[in-house]
Amino acid sequence: MTTALYRRYRPETFAEVIGQDHVTAPLRHALRSGQVNHAYLFSGPRGCGKTSSARILARVLNCAQNTVEHPTDTPCGVCPSCIELATGGPGSLDVVEIDAASHGGVDDARELRERATFAPARDRFKVFILDEAHMVTPQGFNALLKLVEEPPPHVKFVFATTEPDKVIGTIRSRTHHYPFRLVPPDVLVPYLEQVCARESVPVGAGVLSLVVRAGGGSVRDSLSVLDQLIAGSGPAGLEYEPAVALLGYTHASLLDDLVEALAARDGAASFRVVERVIASGHEPRRFVEDLLERLRDLIVLSAAGERASAVLRDLPSDQLERMRSQATHLGASELSRSADLASVALTEMAGATSPRLQLELLMARLLLPAADDSRTGLGARLDRLERGLPAVAQAGAP
Ligand SMILES: Nc1ncnc2c1ncn2[C@@H]1O[C@H](COP(=O)(O)OP(=O)(O)OP(=O)(O)O)[C@@H](O)[C@H]1O
Ligand SMILES: [Mg+2]
Ligand SMILES: [Zn+2]
């Protein structure tokens, strides 16, 4: 059995950590200039590199090449410590990783205090990585307080947590806090492209955007989704059709049909799309989410013009062309009004007994800018007049 992608592709140096430059750049600078603090706090959402970075930091600190005279920010990779701390390596005696989810009690904290008094076995520092630090009990933190405040010179702490607010303030204020973030698509998509290339898996256009959307900005979640798609793929690699079906997203062509029907004020065609959505077993709420996402892409296209392709990368070029024409046809005000309507509908659908009815009502509202005398509604009508289309059209007209 092969191991999961996210375990094989764990970064081993700061240069390999993606999407966290705001954290890695200053941290690396501090390391290069030999300014090492005694305690660090890495916070941020799930699967974005906190534990990996804590291990990299430990690896840098204890690398035999990293000396007082020649500080460095990159583990050499060949000294005994670097080898032991590599992914899949046995680990080193001087780097202690503690999972606070299971060892966050006061006794564990006392034991840690005890261990910290011993000098490192071989390397420069004794590094304690307290992972899932929000799980340390308040008593546990209190037992650590003195140690974190004034540790012996050979002791370093790295706290990693998704919930920095749960790390008591007295500890937090003694650390250097580095907040990690979700990784944006324009960083993740090229990264996943690389991973697929290294795995020798061909990828169809549009697939990685779906993966990144499903991963919600978490690198680990995106790699898991990719893993699943690869597992289910044949020699042709990852293809759009099975991916969109498996991940449950609306096929781009359905969204094209709907947006084009809306732009043409073609009520019958719009409701036919709704019919197809329901008939193909899509959840109306999911569909509105996807529609909202599409409207957002069109807004980006109409606002950023030629440069939008950089933002919306991974779209096949024919799809990009189609969407450009959709953006022009709908116009900026109409797009923004439609997005507002879709977003309100999404909220209303949450508790609705008939989401399908809500979806149909949304269609009616999207088709009828003339019924809307708000500023955006008027703006949309003006847009249409300027483009020489009738400002008032009947829903249902062909
Ligand atoms: N910034 C990143 N760059 C490259 N790979 C990453 C990054 N973040 C996460 N990964 C991938 O996800 C896996 C898990 O990352 P890591 O354990 O560092 O996440 P975490 O932030 O500690 O998550 P959690 O909050 O769930 O503990 C890594 O092995 C790696 O494959
Ligand atoms: Mg972690
Ligand atoms: Zn080394």
Description:
Helices cover 54% and strands 7% of the residues. By secondary structure, the protein is an alpha/beta fold. Magnesium ion (MG) binds next to helix 3.
CATH superfamily of the largest domain: P-loop containing nucleotide triphosphate hydrolases
The set of bound ligands, ions and cofactors reads: adenosine-5'-triphosphate, magnesium ion, zinc ion
Structural class: alpha/beta
Rg, alpha carbons: 27 Å
What is the CATH topology classification name of the largest domain? Rossmann fold
> Which descriptor suits the 3D outline?
elongated
Q: Tell me, what is the CATH class of the largest domain?
A: Alpha Beta
Instruction: Work out the strand percent.
Output: 5-15%
Termini gap: 56 Å
The low-confidence parts are 393-398
User: Could you state the order of secondary-structure elements as H and E?
Assistant: HHEHHEHEHEHEHHHHHHHHHHHH
Strand order of the largest sheet: 2-3-4-1-5
The CATH architecture assignment of the largest domain turns out to be 3-Layer(aba) Sandwich
Number of strands: 5
Provide the number of structural domains.
3
Mean pLDDT: 91
The percent range for helix content is 40-55%
Topology, please?
Elements: H1 5-8, H2 21-32, E1 39-43, H3 50-62, H4 80-84, E2 95-99, H5 106-116, E3 126-131, H6 138-149, E4 155-161, H7 169-172, E5 176-179, H8 185-198, H9 207-215, H10 219-231, H11 240-247, H12 252-263, H13 267-279, H14 284-304, H15 308-311, H16 317-330, H17 332-350, H18 355-367, H19 375-386
Helix pairs in contact: 5-6, 8-9, 9-10, 9-11, 12-13, 12-16, 13-18, 14-16, 14-17, 17-18, 17-19
Magnesium ion binds at residues 50-51, 131, 160.
